[in-house]
């Protein structure tokens, strides 16, 4: 296992634990950041979709390997702002479930749309994920720190997807990546119909 992959896995494991914030103000920077960082890691629907974005980017190759994981958090931050200010967005949970279904299916079916189409798909789903984060923002948390935390955690999940997606270079790895996409799509179906 490469050093980069070990580092990503270590960061993901550490992020999944509760921070020991003894003697700290819950409204402070640390409380908001750690709450935001942990949020995408605790929701399986978010986690799978984030990994799926990195996986699809790696499957598509350059420049998508970097464009998709950059587009997602940028647009997600905009969606988060919409949720934070109370702007209604119908079908947020359906949009999140569909993100895993569609992105996973793109990988499983080896879909290679033009980069701008892939970016629009990823960006459209990012609005739903961001809105969910924004509306679930704890009132006591620092909004900026919370947002920074969930954007960084999202980036790390994208990196985990990219790391797995790089296996696409080899025939067996290509099959494994496409199977991973199929699993993400199947999870999306489960989210959509309330199985999970």
Give an overview in words.
This protein has 196 residues and is mainly α. It has one domain (41-192). The protein has eight helices and no strands. The chain has helices at 3-15, 29-42, 44-60, 64-84, 92-108, 115-135, 143-165, 171-192. Helix 3 runs antiparallel to helix 4 (64-84), helix 3 (44-60) crosses helix 7 (143-165) and helix 5 packs antiparallel against helix 6 (115-135). It is globular, with a radius of gyration of 16 Å. Residues 7-28 have low confidence and may be disordered.
SS class: mainly alpha
Largest sheet: none
Roughly how many Å is the radius of gyration? 16 Å
How many discrete domains?
Answer: 1
Instruction: Note the run of SSEs as H and E.
Output: HHHHHHHH
The 3D shape can be described as globular
Straight-line distance between termini: 31 Å
Mean pLDDT: 83
Number of continuous helical runs: 8
**Unreliable stretches, pLDDT < 50, 5 or more residues?**
7-28
Q: In total, how many beta strands? A: 0
As a percent range, the share of helical residues equals over 70%
Q: What amount of the residues lies in strands?
A: under 5%
